[in-house]
Amino acid sequence: MDNCLFCKIIAGDIPSTKVYEDEYVYAFRDINPQAPVHILVVPKAHIACADAVDEGNSLYVAKCFEAIAKIAKAEGLDSGYRVINNCGEDGGQTVMHLHFHILGGVKLSDKML
Questions:
Q1: 69-81: per-residue pLDDT in tens?
Q2: What confidence tens digit (pLDDT) does each residue in 49-106 have?
């Protein structure tokens, strides 16, 4: 998608601090971290949000979760971490490209972020 911020980051048109990349997934540090470790994990295929996941693109979601486990291990999040996905405007999604937040590095509150 030409106007998608995350598609531009994946393409290298906008700089990011990459922490992981493979054929299906790109992950980078959030520029406004909400925890000591705050990483965004995005599929390389443009999928607008969780509502747009279907049998034709669900492999990308599976690959995101495989990457999340690898990233958490590499980041030393052995005591735990949180994975968040916001779907749609009312759900707090600000970039319409499916993405997952990994938050950790500190004991997180029981309350929602």
A1: 999 999 999 999 9
A2: 999 999 999 999 999 999 999 999 999 999 999 999 999 999 999 999 999 999 999 9
Q: Give the integer Cα–Cα distance in Å for 50 and 77.
A: 25
**Tally of CB atoms within 10 A around 64:** 23
Strand order in the sheet with 25-29: 18-21, 25-29, 37-43, 100-104, 81-84
For the chain, report the end-to-end CA distance as a whole number of angstroms: 29
* List 46, 97, 99, 101, catalytic entry: 99
Whether 101 is catalytic: no
Beta strands 18-21 and 100-104, pairing class? unpaired
